[in-house]
Amino acid sequence: MKVTVQMARFALVGVVNTGTYYGCYLALLTVLPYLAAHVIAFVSSMIGSFLLNSYFTYRIRPTWRKFLLFPLTNAANFVITTGGVWLLVDRAGFSSRYAPLVAALAAIPITFVVSRAIMLRPDTRQDARPKAVEQVR
User: Fold this and answer.
1) CA nearest to 107, candidates 77, 130, 68
2) Crossing angle for the helix pair 64-86 and 34-52, nearest 10 degrees?
3) pLDDT reading at 130 higher than 60
4) How many Å is the maximal CA-CA distance in the chain?
5) Rounded-to-integer distance, Cα 134 and Cα 112, Å
6) pTM across the whole model
């Protein structure tokens, strides 16, 4: 599958994931402080993102190994969005309702590159030893 098709699918999954995150965030914001709501919504939407990216974006079978590595795809995203939310709300006086959407824009390209590297990596390690050269008789 071409990278451009994967990027388009990744973007579509990102829209769905952002909607899921934002819906959870707003619901949790009614009962939790904004950073707690952000973290819980982020983790919940990340699980959905893993499944959607497995089946739809990269057309691969999800495995436990990839599931356990998948948070690495969101580590940069999490740092950028969490720092961005904090800066926008606490330092810039931005609304806590909209800050996560603004902060998420900066993390999208980084998340795609890391996601693609992890999701398309084979689960089994290939034998690293060089194959024996056939003897010519």
Assistant:
1) 77
2) 150
3) no
4) 79
5) 42
6) 0.66
